[in-house]
Amino acid sequence: MGCGDLGDDGAVIDSVQDRGVVKMIFNNRTMRRATVTMAAALAASSVLATWAIDATSASAKSYLSISVGIALSPPKVVFMAPYVAQAQGYFAKEGLQANLIAMPNGLSTELGTTAGSINFGLSSATDSVEAAAAKAPIHAIASYGAKLDTECVAAPGYNTAAKLRGQNVGTTGAAGFAATTLAACLKPFGLTLADVHPVVMTRSQFVGALATGAIKVASFHADDAYVVLHQIKGSTVVDKQYKTLPNWWYGGVASLDSYTKTHPVVTEHFLAALILANNWMNNPKNFNALVKLAERATGEDKAAVTYALKFNIAAKSFTTAMNQVSVMWTAKECKVVGDTTVVPTYNQIVDNHYLVAAQKLVKSQGNG
Prior knowledge:
Structural class: alpha/beta
Helix content: 40-55%
Number of helices: 19
C-alpha cells in the first residue's frame, strides 16, 4: 500500500501483492475496479456514519454531508482530530455533517479516496508520496498526525545490545518502511538489521510473541505499547520513534483533485474544523475532556488513552501542518527503500493552498 501504511491491525503492508494493488488503482483504466473494491470495504466496515451530529442540532441549519475515511478500525489516539471536530461541534460550525468511516485498513481508505467514494481520507502520508510518484490525480491537503506515534518495546531482559544480538525481532515486513522502523528500534542499541533475525508477522501477533519470547523487540502504537508494558512485566521502552525518525511525515489527509477543485469551500471548511480540533486538543485545559472522548472513540481504557495522548502531544503530532522538510525526507526515503522509483516534488505530493485558506478562515472567525 505504501512505504509506511497501516494494515488491518495497524501493521505496515509491505508485500508485493499489496503494493501491486495500490499501483493498480493509480491507473485510470482500473478506477472502476477500485470503486468495486471500495464498495466491499464499506459494506464490511463496522462503523459507518457514527459520531454524526444529532437531529436537534441538524434541524437548526442545513448541513452538507461529507465522508471521511479513517484508516484503522477501531482508531488509535493519533486519529482523534476528526472525532474531536465532530464531538465539539466544529464540523457543524463549518456547515458540515461529517460521516466518519472507520475503515478496516489504510489500503481500503486509499482505494476509497482514489475512487472518489470517500471525500477525505486519513491514512499514511506515504500514500500521497506514492500517488505523486505514480502521477495520480490526488494530493495531500493536510496532516492529521504529523509524527510517528510508535515506540519500540523490548522483552524482559533484552534491553541491551549484548542480549539482543542474534535474537528474533518482530517486523510487519521484510523491506520498505517496516525495515526502516525496525532499524530505528535497533539504533539505540548500536545494532543494525544484520545483527538480528527479523520475523515477519502482523502487529496483532506482536504481544503474544513478545510474551512467549518468540521475539525480543517490536514496535507498537503508543496505545498498544502501554498495554504491552503492563501485560508483560519487565518489558521496557527502548525507543520513541518520533525522536529516532524526527523527519518521518506520518499521517496525511488526502483528497482527489477533482473533488477539491469542484468543492474548494467545502475543503477549506473541513480543514478549518480540523484546525479547531487540534487547537482544542493541544490546550491543556481540555485534557481531561479529551481523554473521555478518546476512550469513546477508540474503545480503549482510560490509562491507555491517557498514555497515548501524552505521547502524541509531546511529539507535537496533533497538527494539520505539512512540513516541507519532512515531506521531502519521506519522499526520498520511499525511493531509498524501493517503494517508488522517483522522488516527486513537494508540489506534486502536496496541495497546500486549501490549508492556507483554512488557516485564514479560522483567524477571520476569531479563533486563530
